Model the fold of this input.
Amino acid sequence: MESAELLSVLCRELPGLRAVAEETGDGDRLEEALAAARRGEPVTERLRALGLLWLLESWGTTRGVPPESEPSGLVALPGGDRGGRVALGGYRCPAGLCRRAEQPRPGDDLPVCALHGRPLRFR
Done:
């Protein structure tokens, strides 16, 4: 799995991954790997040493890693007269480090990058 794909799955699945790391007593080591990822350092070997790389790879395969193409969807723009203004696009990684892509859906909360703790950006 490429690093951009790995970061995408890591971001999307971080709550579950943290639970696994806490159960195995590796929570601190996982947080160190996440800090390295935030700095832009490679984390593949760190995750392998934690025994979590295989889990992320399987989650990426079974849950589908988003394609590199732009997500797109019609989204009502905030403000204005609510007279049918829409934008075409989707949400992407706020740091531009991974391939995570989320389709906007009416009523959904703004998706958040679990790795950086920031909302995904609309593009």
The chain is about 40% helix and 15% strand. The radius of gyration is 16 Å.
